[in-house]
Amino acid sequence: MTKNQSVVLFAPKACSPFKRFIRIPYALLSISSILDQEGYKINIVDATNLKSYKKVCSNALCLGVNSIIGPQISDELKISRQVKEEFSDIKVVWGGAHPTALPEQTLSNENIDIIVKGQGELTFTHLVHTLEQGRPLNDVDGIYYKDNGKIIKTPERPISNPNKFPPYPFHLIDLKKHVMKVDGFRCANYVSSRGCSFNCKFCSIPIIYKRHWFGLNPKRVINDLLYLKEKGKVEYIWFDDANYFADWDRAKEISKLMIQQDLQLKWFAEARADKITRLSKDDIVLLKESGLYRLFIGAESGSQRILNTLQKGTTVKDILDFAKICIENDIGAIFSFMVGLPHETIYDFYKTLSLIEKITTMSDSFTIMLQLYASLPSTALYEDALKMGFREPKTVEEWSEIDFYHFNTPWVSKKLKKIIATTKFQIIPLLCFKDSSKINGRKFIPKILYKIPYKISLFRLRNLTTKLSQIYHFD
Ligand code: B12
Ligand code: SF4
Predict the structure, then answer these.
(1) What's the pTM?
(2) Of 61, 53, 49, which is closest to residue 22 (Cα–Cα)?
(3) pLDDT per residue as tens digits for the range 148-207
(4) pLDDT at 18 over 50
(5) Pick from 463, 338, 337, 351: nearest CA to 412
(6) Which pLDDT belongs to residue 2?
(7) Whether the Cβ atoms of residue 25 and residue 68 lie closer than 8 Å to each other
(8) How many domains in the chain?
(9) Is 322 within a domain?
């Protein structure tokens, strides 16, 4: 049955000074899945075409906005303001990691009416029904809303297993727009699980999913991958799961089905180093056979002291053992490190640089990422950041001014900031110029020329670690 009123959803574009990622908006597809089955008309407006909201808002019940920390918030605020100005009856509803962490502060913005905290499928469906029937909002669990200027919080909604919900309604998006070229392959992201049971002190996932983890069942995952392959001509799947390998039996079953169904897709996933090091040789062979192309690990730090402080639950040895497994099995890997962390000393930073140097020289298929620590509200480390002088943004507008290419870390000395900036912006980016044959489309560049930036960066990295060890008498 087609409903009279529609639902409009807004997918922000990712901000990075280098690229504009276009990812499939799984959060929005998830919250649409039940409503779509019930016959609601759902329009997803994408920030690459911000003005298109005008065409679809005329008969809408609400505008749903997906929000995470950072500069994307400015587009989210812009569309919320414009919709409120032009269509005052439409309720503006925000959900996602940022409003979940700071529901009251976010709701204080005059153009936001309702916050959905945490998992959204059931709450948003119930909310849309309630708005449509004109019933009171206090009927809906899991939200914050305003009543005569007062913020009202309803009881929390328990987390549900996403297998209970219908499949992602891919027909709501133009798939072609969301396929990006990665290493020369047509690549689409996919989310096959929710949450994570670990409790790393810097991470937002435990805040959203309260340390639950749920994996979509393998048959359902394979159906979706087949859809992406057939309809989007996708060659490479980028699993955006927080912890893809949390349930090894499930990951194994997905790989077996990929082989049985002859999917012939390359795939990428995020893993914990300690999980991969516990797999057998046969397990790794299975992953490879099913198309595993590259793994991403949150290595975070080369200092065991910092890994312990972060409650990461991994060791520097796990990271190196993981690297060896990747080499033995010809698997590419991205090692992501964080710097500028609360409690990090110059010696910890030196340990990170030394580990980066070791890893980058181990394989041409290894890439290093160095991220400036982002203070994520509601996380345990955020409390430490506040105590150490992080100037907390007081409004959602101020949060949109926070980006991750500038320091928001008053505890880092001027001197260390300078060293970190040189490493992050000048040295690390050039370390990926290792092997032109690994990058489709750049094969015409003579190997020897391609490697020059890498050689220079490696020289600078070694120079920096040596200097630090001499100045501070490390090791
Ligand atoms: C894809 C992704 C990105 C993409 C785009 C993200 C986007 N716009 O949503 C890119 C690559 C751009 C990105 C960048 C960054 N990201 Co990111 N990213 C993710 C990732 C891997 C997947 C998101 C996803 O699709 N999840 C699947 C869906 C189904 O789950 P969900 O998002 O939780 O949605 C559910 C609920 O939250 C809710 N919901 C969500 N939106 C809405 C909207 C409405 C209206 C309603 C009712 C409900 C609702 O309902 C959904 C279904 O239950 C998550 C980790 C993860 N696996 O979730 C991190 C994550 C969202 N990112 C995070 C971070 C820290 C970043 C960066 C800051 C990293 C950095 N240092 O640069 C940058 C920020 C850049 C910027 N703002 O410009 C944090 C969030 C931090 C925060 N407090 O906001 C996460 C949670 C990772 C983490 N480990 O902490 N990211
Ligand atoms: S950093 Fe990774 S392992 Fe740790 S809680 Fe977040 S998603 Fe889980």
Answers:
(1) 0.95
(2) 49
(3) 989 999 999 999 999 999 999 999 999 988 998 888 899 999 999 999 999 999 999 999
(4) no
(5) 338
(6) 58
(7) no
(8) 1
(9) no
Q: Let me know: does 301 contact 308? Beta carbons within 8 Å.
A: no
Question: Distance between CA 355 and CA 334 in Å, rounded?
Answer: 14
Range of the domain at 146: 6-153
Position in ligand 1 atom list of the atom nearest CA 376? 83
Write the pLDDT tens digit of every residue in 48-85: 777 788 889 988 999 999 999 988 999 999 999 999 99
Q: Is the CB of 205 under 6 A from ligand 2?
A: yes
Q: 237 near 187, Cβ under 8 Å?
A: yes
Measure the CA–CA gap between 136 and 363, rounded to whole angstroms. 60
Q: Does residue 296 fall inside a structural domain?
A: no
Give nearest CA residue, ligand 1 atom 34.
Answer: 27
Asked if the structure places residue 375 within a domain, the reply is: no
449 found inside a domain: no
**How many helices and strands (H and E) does the chain possess?**
19, 16
Alpha helices in 310-443 (DSSP H): 316-328, 346-360, 380-387, 396-400, 414-421
E-strand spans in 272-365?
A: 292-300, 332-339
Q: Is 53 helix (H, G, I), strand (E, B) or coil?
A: helix
- Give the integer Cα–Cα distance in Å for 171 and 375: 36
* Nearest atom within ligand 1 for CA of residue 191: 27
Residue 269: its H or E element: strand 266-271
Instruction: Please check whether residue 263 is in contact with residue 225, taking contact to mean a CB–CB distance below 8 angstroms.
Output: yes
397: tokens are 């507008």
**Tally of residues, the chain:** 475
Q: What amino acid occupies position 363? A: S
Question: CATH number for the domain including 96?
Answer: 3.40.50.2300
Instruction: Return d(Cα 7, Cα 1) in angstroms, integer.
Output: 15
Q: Residue 58 CA to chain centroid, in angstroms?
A: 33
Question: What is the position in ligand 1's atom list of the atom closest to the CA of 127?
Answer: 47
Q: Whose CA is nearest to atom 31 of ligand 1?
A: 27
- Does 235 contact ligand 1 (Cβ within 6 A)? no
Read off the pLDDT band of 4 (50, 70, 90): confident
Residue 192 CA to residue 383 CA, distance in Å, equals 31
Helix (H, G, I), strand (E, B) or coil at 265: coil
Three-class secondary structure of residue 404 per DSSP: coil
